[in-house]
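Tokens help. One example:
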Amino acid sequence: MSYNITLIPGDGIGPELTEATRRVLEASGVKFNWDIVHAGVDVMEECGTPLPPAVVESIRKNKVALKGPITTPVGSGFRSVNVALRKELELYTCLRPCKSYPGAPTYYNDIDLIIVRENMEDLYAGIEFEQGSEQAKKLTQLISEMGGQIRDDAGISIKPISEFGSRRIVKWAFEYARANKRKKVTAVHKANIMKYSDGLFLRVAREVAAEYSDIEFEDRIVDNMTMQLVKKPQMYDVLVCPNLYGDVISDLCAGLVGGLGLAPGANIGDTIALFEPTHGSAPKYKGMNKANPMAQMLSGVMMLRHLGEVEAADRVEQAIAAVVAEGKQVTYDLLPEPEQKRAVGTAQVADAIIAHMG
């Protein structure tokens, strides 16, 4: 059997990581028909958009996609392609495992955390009004009439959190926990301050938790959660979060296990799943054969499990773990600074992992 998979190389370091990942996944013995489509800054001039319609059409057709990182401009320029794909394809769940591998540069052992992040709402919904715009002025006036106060020179972002979106993501987290024999779900929020948005999320999380008596439930205020994760991360299991907190906490957890080079991810809807590393496109390292491909490879492992190819997924993950443990054929980010001169490149990491797979 072979699988039709949309393959999006990305930009910056994306094409190098994607090629290394493709080689490793094919070495697992699973057969793929890659439908290669392009998105990001490299297609802007030709297509007039960083997200051509052909990309979305391919993902809709194949239902499964593997994607390299894509640049998101800071402060100006086009909006995030990643966010656009999540919205267009209703990929409402962002799944980000953070797992420690012996040999990785971290002070922690035995970390196995799952971050389940709501993808469609919160401050990432993209409802923004530019400072000085007519829309911002109207909104400022309306809020003033309702008893609130916003300075006239403010830019405004709206934070919508709905009962529907909250219930959907919390149920997804509990179903994942049950299916994967996880013991506890922790809801992350700031309901002590944002009582009508995060408060709603927390209320719904408690209601859903009552339906899953076989799984322990607790909640944590987000700032306390960050401290708890640094002090005693082994106390936690599945974290379910609104959009913004999930983004921040997943990077914190990646730091606990050795960095973003070991942080895979997936964006999942009811019928479509898109797999991609958590990290960005690092354009300054483009074409240098320097970046760590393991986060994208581990995203490929997640894809294999999604496809039901569990044995192949285990074989790839075990080979990655072996290379990390040996510490000989790894990129600079997995080495102490004095030893980084002996680091190998992206392609050589793929060679080492393939060799371990036999």
About this structure: The first strand starts at residue 2 and ends at 8. The first helix runs from residue 14 to 27. The CA atoms of residues 140 and 230 lie 39 Å apart.
